[in-house]
């Protein structure tokens, strides 16, 4: 619930903003302990809402229980953190609440069975700051996620929210705002890594009375959930960043384009905009300045191509989401033909921190050419899945084996697929690659939006390439021939390879087409679509050759190279498998071991399902 400020009370000056911040801090400090329940989608799916209700039902004097956005450590959710003790409980269930209340909130002791324990050493970590998953992170864009109630503007203001907007609107000229962001070295966190300040400068210098700012929240990469978590956990930071961008270029209107598949993010962004508008932090003459700005939340239908800037703008205009040639660039001719800048969620959430703490502070983090931090959604065959934020320049090894806890099941690391469908696959020998724009580009990959999928030795890299090519081919808008036809042909060849029907000539053709698509597609999504293929060809060509020449999948994954076999020592000769086989590939006498004719076998698995003795397996 929101705090006690009347809904009609406006904040009309910097002094009033500071006064409200002090008031909210006092209200929060009156709660001697705070119970922060993660209500990110993963935790919600495992009962977080009921956990929150149980804490509220077991109310204790001077203790507040509230929802928050994602805490990041999704692998061990639902999570509950007790402040100011910094105590974290993992895998919490509603029935655990009464014990937590009695033990921790009343007696001040720790419920040992609910604290995080290292899977290898068994070491217990009751405090969040001590857990290895969190200890190596540096929170900037995620600094409020998991720490505040995203539905309460008061908690955001209490943590210096909208102070950066006050500085931009009252202390700095638009040109000075642009120069501050330029000096910070902030690069776009949506994939391309273009300097944010330069983009703003181009739009600032563009001629036109009407200008627009747009937040690209159309996060469509498989396995990526960075922007979603920021919107769900700290929506006001996105609004504040967008307002600062508007101040910088001279815009008074903005759009937040978010995919409709993110209902929680949509609801929280709309609620945040309503709250900010009611308090006078959106609208006319913000904080008593001459700056006016408001936003519209636009829901997208989930087309991957609408993550491309010009396609996104077309969708906002009510047209089919398809990219257009550039130039003209959106900074000169964008939404409705007017100068427009488009920044992604993470970029905008970082901007208020830069305006509050200064460009020099931001440059102390990260590398010289890639300052600051980057969020990554770490998924796949890794022990600690979740959302992380690390300084640019952190190595892939540090993320996988430090924060991520290594590959699960004691298996060997094989590759990391980074950057989503537009990214690439990095092998074990590149584990020490620095996670920054320039280093990843040199390796043939890209930061992208921040998806990071860890693959183990049981992964077929040809199948990985086929999976991502199937995604990009399906999502191709079809406007340009290289992407529309090239990705289709590449997918056909990849399917031939995993089916065991390809030749070495097909492999040469695949690589040639990949380079054509990369060099000649209309938009960035088409140009980067071949990256998974090109990197797997570069680093795992032996797997392609094994499929084609040896008719073998080195990972033992592709079914085309497997056969069902009957183990004679287990077979009872009951005949059920023979009766179930649709291709009459099984022969044998009753009460004697049967056999499968591999030439006739359709590999449907009906025989294995019918066998009651576990005598049939795919090998």
In short:
The strands form six sheets. This protein has a five-stranded mixed β-sheet. Strands 2-1-3-4 form a four-stranded mixed β-sheet, with helices on one face. The chain contains 25 helices and 19 strands.
Strand order of the largest sheet: 12-11-15-13-14
Please count the beta strands (DSSP E, at least 2 residues each). Answer: 19
Helix content percent band: 25-40%
Which residues sit in consecutive blocks of at least 5 with pLDDT less than 50?
1-7
Apparent shape: globular
Structural class by SSE content = alpha/beta
Could you describe the largest sheet, including whether it forms a barrel? 5 strands, mixed
Give the C-alpha Rg.
27 Å
| First and last CA, distance | 57 Å
Structural write-up:
It is a single chain. About 40% of the residues lie in helices and about 15% in strands. It contains 25 helices and 19 strands. Strand 11 (about 375-380) and strand 12 form a beta hairpin. It is globular.
Topology diagram in text:
Elements: H1 14-29, E1 33-38, H2 41-45, H3 48-57, E2 63-68, E3 80-83, E4 87-89, H4 97-106, E5 116-117, E6 124-125, H5 132-135, H6 153-158, H7 163-170, H8 174-184, H9 196-205, E7 212-217, H10 226-233, H11 235-249, E8 253-259, H12 263-278, E9 294-300, H13 309-316, E10 340-344, H14 345-357, H15 359-363, E11 373-380, E12 386-391, H16 396-403, E13 413-418, E14 424-427, H17 437-442, E15 451-456, H18 461-475, H19 481-498, H20 504-520, H21 524-528, H22 531-539, H23 541-550, E16 564-566, H24 576-580, E17 586-587, E18 595-596, H25 606-610, E19 616-618
Parallel strand pairs: 1-2, 7-8, 7-10, 8-9, 11-15
Antiparallel strand pairs: 1-3, 3-4, 5-6, 11-12, 13-14, 13-15, 16-19, 17-18
Helix pairs in contact: 7-11, 7-14, 8-9, 8-11, 10-11, 10-12, 11-14, 18-19, 19-20, 20-22
């Amino acid at each position: 619930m929101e705090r006690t400020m009347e809904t009609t009370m406006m904040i009309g000056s910097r002094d009033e903003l500071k006064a409200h911040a002090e008031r909210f801090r006092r209200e929060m400090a009156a709660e001697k302990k705070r119970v922060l329940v993660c209500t990110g989608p993963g935790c919600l799916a495992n009962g977080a809402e009921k956990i929150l209700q149980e804490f509220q039902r077991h109310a204790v004097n001077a203790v507040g229980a509230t929802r928050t956005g994602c805490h990041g450590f999704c692998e061990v959710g639902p999570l509950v953190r007790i402040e100011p003790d910094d105590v974290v409980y993992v895998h919490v269930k509603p029935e655990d609440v009464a014990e937590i209340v009695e033990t921790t909130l009343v007696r001040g002791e720790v419920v040992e069975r609910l604290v995080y324990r290292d899977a290898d050493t068994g070491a217990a970590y009751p405090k969040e700051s001590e857990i290895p998953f969190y200890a190596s992170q540096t929170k900037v864009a995620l600094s409020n996620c998991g720490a505040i109630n995203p539905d309460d503007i008061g908690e955001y203001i209490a943590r210096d929210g909208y102070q950066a907007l006050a500085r931009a609107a009252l202390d700095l000229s638009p040109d000075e705002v642009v120069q501050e962001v330029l000096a910070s070295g902030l690069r776009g966190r949506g994939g391309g890594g273009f300097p944010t300040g330069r983009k703003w400068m181009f739009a600032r210098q563009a001629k036109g009375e009407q200008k627009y700012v747009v937040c690209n929240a159309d996060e469509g990469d498989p396995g990526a959930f960075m922007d979603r978590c920021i919107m769900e956990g700290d929506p006001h930071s996105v609004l504040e960043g967008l307002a600062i961008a508007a101040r910088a270029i001279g815009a008074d209107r903005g759009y937040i384009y978010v995919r409709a598949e993110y209902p929680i993010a949509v609801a929280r962004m709309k609620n945040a905009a309503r709250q900010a508008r009611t308090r006078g932090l959106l609208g006319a003459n913000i904080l008593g300045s001459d700056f006016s700005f408001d936003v519209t939340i636009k829901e997208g239908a989930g087309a991957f191509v609408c993550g491309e800037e010009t396609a996104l703008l077309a969708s906002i205009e009510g047209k089919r989401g398809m990219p257009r040639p550039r130039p003209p660039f959106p900074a000169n001719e964008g939404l409705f033909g007017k100068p427009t800048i488009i920044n992604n969620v993470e970029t905008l959430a970082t901007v208020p921190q830069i305006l509050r703490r200064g460009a020099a502070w931001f440059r102390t983090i990260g590398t010289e050419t890639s300052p600051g931090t980057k969020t990554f959604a770490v998924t796949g065959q890794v022990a600690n899945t979740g959302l992380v934020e690390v300084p640019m320049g952190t190595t892939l090894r540090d993320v996988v084996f430090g924060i991520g806890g290594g590959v699960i099941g004691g298996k060997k690391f094989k590759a990391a697929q980074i950057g989503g469908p537009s990214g690439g696959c990095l092998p074990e020998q590149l584990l020490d690659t620095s996670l920054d724009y320039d280093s990843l580009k040199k390796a043939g990959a890209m930061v992208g939006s921040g998806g990071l999928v860890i693959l183990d030795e049981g992964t077929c890299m040809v199948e990985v390439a086929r999976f991502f090519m199937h995604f990009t081919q399906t999502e191709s808008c079809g406007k340009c021939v290289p992407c529309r036809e090239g990705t289709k042909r590449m997918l056909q060849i990849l399917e031939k390879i995993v089916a065991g029907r390809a030749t070495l000539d097909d492999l040469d053709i695949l690589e040639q087409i990949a380079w054509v698509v990369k060099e000649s597609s209309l938009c960035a999504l088409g140009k980067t679509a071949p990256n998974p293929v090109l990197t797997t060809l570069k680093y795992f060509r032996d797997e392609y050759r094994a499929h084609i020449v040896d008719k073998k999948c080195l990972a033992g994954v592709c079914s085309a190279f497997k056969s069902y076999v009957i183990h004679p020592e287990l077979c009872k000769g009951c005949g059920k498998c023979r009766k179930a086989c649709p291709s009459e590939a099984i022969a044998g006498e009753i009460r004697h071991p049967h056999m499968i004719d591999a030439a006739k076998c359709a590999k449907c698995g009906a025989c294995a399902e019918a066998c009651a003795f576990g005598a049939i397996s795919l090998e």
